[in-house]
Amino acid sequence: MELFEDDVWQMAWGERAAIEGLLSARRPALAIEVGTAEGASLRRIAAHSAEVHSFDVVLPQLEVPEHVTLHTGDSHVLLPEVLAGFAQEGRNVDFALVDGDHSAEGVRRDVEDLLASSAVRDTVIVTHDTGNELVRSGLDAVDYAAHDKVVHVDLDFVPGHLGRERFGGELWYGLGLIVVDADRPRAGDPVQRDRHHGGELLAVARDALAGAPARAGTSATALDARDERIAALEREVVHHRDLWQALMRSPSWRVTAPLRAAKRLAHRRG
């Protein structure tokens, strides 16, 4: 199955299966992806959708079908513009995947841009890496209850992972699910809050494995330590994002794009 054999898809198998299931049930007429990368999730979205718009800071070296449009640049600028066009045409975005800017502020803005649009009224929104502390803090900062059309938010739709060998000691992966339905009455808070989320528990496990005292959760010392770690991780994300953007813009990356495409094609055919 291509779903599990694709070696460039930066998602766990359970996450891939969950997205495939949502797409299969939803069959979007119009879909959006924030964060194209090498196009693994885009291929699956395109397979189930009539029209797809995918956003990334650099132009991916991909062969895309005619019903896919790539938007290159800052999603915080481009996404609101594209959504405004859809709204003016009276169109609805059926499915959206948010997997681009992994800073707390960046993911918050992407989600809020989607929720602010009248083109997002009957929509399934999936967010990736909700187990990561930075991403989760950005998603937690969104005021979902301020949007009457948001009927359900489960940021642990698929739990994240604590890395052991790859990304050792780091919290990554995890899918969040945001269901938007402007025609469905909502009662109370749409956010799932009846359990500890996976990221909290994995952070405790990580600290215990590292020999550090577990977070007290409500103490000033614990909160200060958490904020310092979040700030440090924010800086690290920005640093690595800058390095990645420089790589994607480099002549060598563009020159070798046909080789990577040929490898993916040979892998699928094999």
UniProtKB/TrEMBL annotation:
InterPro entries: SAM-dependent_MTases_sf. One of its GO terms (molecular function) is methyltransferase activity. One of its GO terms (biological process) is methylation. The keyword Transferase applies. Keywords: Methyltransferase, Transferase. Pfam families: Methyltransf_24. It comes from the Bacteria. Its EC number is 2.1.1.-. This is Class I SAM-dependent methyltransferase. It comes from Patulibacter brassicae.
